[in-house]
Amino acid sequence: MSDTPRNTAEYEQALGSADAQLAEFEGPKRTLLGHVQHFLHSHPTMVPVIVLALSLVVFGILAGERFFTPFNLSLILQQVSIIGILAAAQSLIILTAGIDLSVAAIMVLMSVVSGKLAITLGVPPSLAIMASFTLGTLAGMLNGLLVTRLRLPPFIVTLGTWNIFFALSLWLSGAQSIRSQDIDQMAPLLKFFGNSFRVGGANITYGSILMVLVFATLWYLLNKTAWGRHVYAVGDDKDAAELAGIRTDRMLISVYALAGFICALAAWASIGRVGSISPQSFYEGNLQSITAVVIGGISLFGGRGSIMGALFGALIVGVFQSGLRLAGVDVLWQVFAIGWLIIIAVAIDQWIRKVSA
């Protein structure tokens, strides 16, 4: 017992002379490339923004002054408006780690439905449009139900419904187009989004305005509401989202239903853009919408990316096509260039995903 005070004093003396600095663990220092990688991981929309800016500069040089005329820039907006709206619908599905091969087929089917009701059956155009909205939403909901209830991969489900909706379009229309003159005479409201107004030398269509409004609305829903946070959570890790209390099946059904509604909006806009209704139009719209989403930096693995990236992706495709056309490049090589653009975009996405969260 007599040694206890002495031991205590020695312990306190040793403790007082010990180094009080906390241990520090330093990770490897980031290189400049590492900083760029981390920045792009935190701001995925910057990739398509940078690509779009570079594309404008390059094609402005190659194509000359004609490229930057207000008319040509507004023409690019017109040309990408329909694919842009489809890309907005596609983005919702891809953010949940799915994919929808039926978006263009739903759009074409809804245009045929509205045209059939308004032109052939004499239904008031406003009611025909509302019917197409309802059926488009139900078509998207069907995709969602098949994915969630039957536990089938979205790729397989929408590949099947793509063919189903395409066949229904041919059956309802009798494989015949509805002429522009008939629409003008009996249901001019169906061409509403083909109307335009001039701003300086630019010719802005209502369809272009609709595309911007769709993206703005979806940006708000995905970034400012609980529903949007749940979309990202389901896409990032569905099992973890379920453990957190999110009703993932209901969430997925709502996403597919909203995508179907947006496709119906695109159907109305497409009638104004094309001027007629054909069951075989926009046959490549599914792949073109995926192209815009991928180039826009939205990850095909779900849970990462901004809806605005899809808008920039659609604009990049439009800029490439317009710039190459004005530069005198053959259409074949335009498709060739877009193909490489897709591969490079996916490679960049894979590189960015290597950054640990």
UniProtKB/TrEMBL annotation:
It is found in: Cell membrane. Keywords: Cell membrane, Membrane, Transmembrane, Transmembrane helix. It is a multi-pass membrane protein. It holds the Pfam family BPD_transp_2. This is ABC transporter permease. PANTHER family: ABC TRANSPORTER PERMEASE PROTEIN YPHD-RELATED-RELATED. The keyword Transmembrane helix applies. It comes from the Bacteria. The keyword DNA-binding does not apply. The chain crosses the membrane at residues 45-63, 75-95, 101-119, 126-146, 152-172, 204-222, 251-271, 292-319, 331-352. CDD domains: TM_PBP1_transp_AraH_like.
